[in-house]
Design goal:
This protein is of the alpha+beta class. Helix content is 36%, strand content 36%. Strand 2 and strand 3 form a beta hairpin. Strands 1-2-3-4-5 form a five-stranded antiparallel sheet, covered by helices on one side. Strands 6-7-8-9-10 form a five-stranded antiparallel sheet, covered by helices on one side. The protein has five helices and ten strands, in the order H-E-H-E-E-E-E-H-E-H-E-E-E-E-H.
């Protein structure tokens, strides 16, 4: 009878260890981070990120699971400095931290990376109010379907293409709402593309 209990205890111990290993493996898979767009985050998270960004363009946003809790971390450039904003899934601000300065060689490498940064499509509601106002004014009532946010020489720029009087017009606006360019696309250029 006693050896039967010992065997049962050993079997239960092995089963428990197997379950623990499976749980740890599952937790590691769940805790993998992934990049998301501003449109994919919950409304409370978006509100907090936009408020903390102080009108600056939102760069990369990562969704991560830390200790079983979903956390969003957004990168923004405020006054020329990269700032990380960390927000809980319920919109609670967990932290706002400016990246410490790096040596000149690292800064030059970062600048080169910024020059090669890809465009990100953002919704009209997710851009700073000053940018939105300038785009709407320059679009002269034309529908703005899509806005691209990109970094040019370390500066965030918003670009929209609209059709005005049958012609495609590219409008570029700085993060502070300053109109940088408004160009009517030449049909010959469009044919060459």
């Amino acid at each position: 009878m006693k050896s039967r209990h010992v065997r049962l205890a050993v079997v239960l111990l092995i089963a428990g260890l197997a379950l623990a290993i499976a749980a740890i493996a599952t937790q590691q898979m769940v805790e993998d981070e992934r990049e998301v767009s501003i449109e994919e985050v919950p409304a409370d998270v978006m509100t907090t990120i936009l408020a903390e960004a102080e009108g600056a363009a939102i760069g990369e946003i990562e969704m991560d699971t830390e200790d079983g809790q979903v956390v969003y971390e957004a990168e923004v450039i405020i006054d020329g400095q990269e700032v990380d904003i960390e927000v809980a899934a319920d919109g609670t601000l967990l932290g706002k931290e400016a990246d410490e300065g790096e040596d000149d060689e690292d800064d030059e490498a970062d600048d080169e990376d910024d020059d090669e940064e890809e465009e990100q499509i953002v919704s009209l509601d997710a851009i700073p109010e000053a940018v939105k106002a300038t785009l709407e004014k320059e679009a002269a009532g034309a529908e703005i379907k899509e806005v691209d946010m990109e970094t040019e020489d370390g500066v965030t720029v918003y670009e929209a293409e609209v059709i005005v009087d049958g012609q495609e017009v590219d409008i570029k606006v700085a993060a502070d709402g300053t109109l940088l360019a408004k160009e009517v696309e030449n049909e010959d250029e469009a044919d060459d593309d």
